[in-house]
Amino acid sequence: QVQLVESGGGLVQAGGSLRLSCAASTRTYSIYAMGWFRQAPGNEREFAAAITWSGGSSSYADSVKGRFTISRDNAKNMVYLQMNSLKPEDTAVYYCAARRLNQQYDSWGQGTQVTVSS
């Protein structure tokens, strides 16, 4: 599995911005895509955004489309999630994940807390 470490979470007011980072190490050659998921208290973990490792093709959940941008830096083995126009309902623990081609996400980071105050 790939080791993943997230950073960049914190407390921000509604309308503000945060940038999450995810550092990947070990077995990075096996990565096909990276994703960001989030889990709010009492809710199931949900998909937020994903990007392919080589081609940079991205996808977003409807709830974040137009506000969040996922990007990657292959040379640094980093994935980022730029979050703009944050809303209180974006409050959650955000997880970085990696998957191989034709596989489910099976490598996960420890998560980073994002709290958006109204």
Can you describe what's shown?
The protein has 118 residues and is mainly beta. Helix content is 0%, strand content 53%. The chain has strands at 3-7, 10-13, 18-25, 33-39, 46-52, 58-60, 68-73, 78-83, 92-99, 107-108, 112-117. Strands 2, 4, 5, 6, 9, 10 and 11 form a 7-stranded mixed β-sheet that branches. Strand 4 (33-39) and strand 5 form a beta hairpin.
Shape category: globular
The N- and C-terminal alpha carbons lie at a distance of: 38 Å
Q: Spell the H/E element sequence.
A: EEEEEEEEEEE
Q: Low-confidence runs (pLDDT<50, min 5 residues)?
A: none
Task: Summarize model confidence as the mean pLDDT.
Answer: 95
- The helix-and-strand class reads mainly beta
Quick rundown:
This protein is mainly β and 118 residues long.
Helices, strands, pairings?
Layout lengths: L2 E5 L2 E4 L4 E8 L7 E7 L6 E7 L5 E3 L7 E6 L4 E6 L8 E8 L7 E2 L3 E6 L1
Parallel strand pairs: 2-11
Antiparallel strand pairs: 1-3, 3-8, 4-5, 4-9, 5-6, 7-8, 9-10, 9-11
